[in-house]
């Protein structure tokens, strides 16, 4: 990963993008995409579409969702505490004690997610799994009036953003899901653009995946692709308590995961595998026996149907503030997708 690409990744990870509030991160995406695309547009839903060779054939859509899970302010009580609802799927236990930022109209406000201390919990309360409805955000306000001057119902909240590198090329941050997907598709499109593809490539930073796969529906209708590659994260199974017999062997640093299953076109998959073998790009193969819970499910069904491939980045501790990925897996995924985009042309038939 070169310096420019690394800086782009850092910009993504330090920019808030809770579902429904993606505009700041889409500004980052647009700025990066303008350096290599023929055109960059934003639709009324908020999806950013970066087009390379837009009149080529076939039409390929690369999709990575930019939204992260977060919280929303629902009520500000008279003591100045904020009560919240989730934006996306949280395990409430990982939220306890987290530092957060409330993204208000006048700028970020720092707070903390809390409940009463363990010393004050009854024996029965200690046995209970916490629920988000029993947690609150403390911004240090003296009372409700002070809090309401700063914060409004509907304001989004994220855990405090940040990025840390670990040993062996690993990195952790909130919202690796799926800012690494956005990085991958935009970097793939950038690399493909330098190799004069026959295909039209539309790299789309989709919105609102975490609350119902919404952005990919509207952007796919507009792009009208023949082929699609969706990049999301997938569960790494190389940590304690996860059963490989149930979920497959997926390891950080061993390459992106190529999925087989109902959402995946077999010709697209074979083309990806061929390009991986030719370029000696490590990949991991896994099966998905049901409809994917990501943008691939909706992209496949757009218009008269899209031939879809699913390329996933192994991720430890998904939907937590410490999501962990391998930077090498990101680079390999971007290179593989770039090679796929350059390898296909008008004569390719993706009928299964």
UniProtKB/TrEMBL annotation:
Q: Which GO terms describe its biological process?
A: proteolysis
Keywords, sorted A to Z: Aminopeptidase, Hydrolase, Metal-binding, Protease
Q: How is the cofactor bound?
A: Binds 2 divalent metal cations per subunit.
Q: Which cofactors must be present for this protein to function?
A: a divalent metal cation
- Binding residue positions for Zn(2+) 1: 65, 177, 232
Looking up Gene3D superfamilies in the UniProt record yields: Peptidase M42, domain 2 (2.40.30.40), Zn peptidases (3.40.630.10)
**Organism of this sequence:** Schlesneria paludicola
Q: Which domain of life is it from?
A: Bacteria
Which residues are noted in the entry as Zn(2+) 2-binding? 177, 210, 319
Active site positions, chain numbering: 209 (proton acceptor)
For this chain, one GO molecular function annotation is: aminopeptidase activity
Q: What is this protein called?
A: M42 family peptidase
Cross-referenced CDD domains: M42_Frv (cd05656)
Q: Describe the family membership recorded for this protein in Swiss-Prot or TrEMBL.
A: Belongs to the peptidase M42 family.
Question: What InterPro entries does the entry give?
Answer: Peptidase_M42, Peptidase_M42_aminopept, Peptidase_M42_dom2
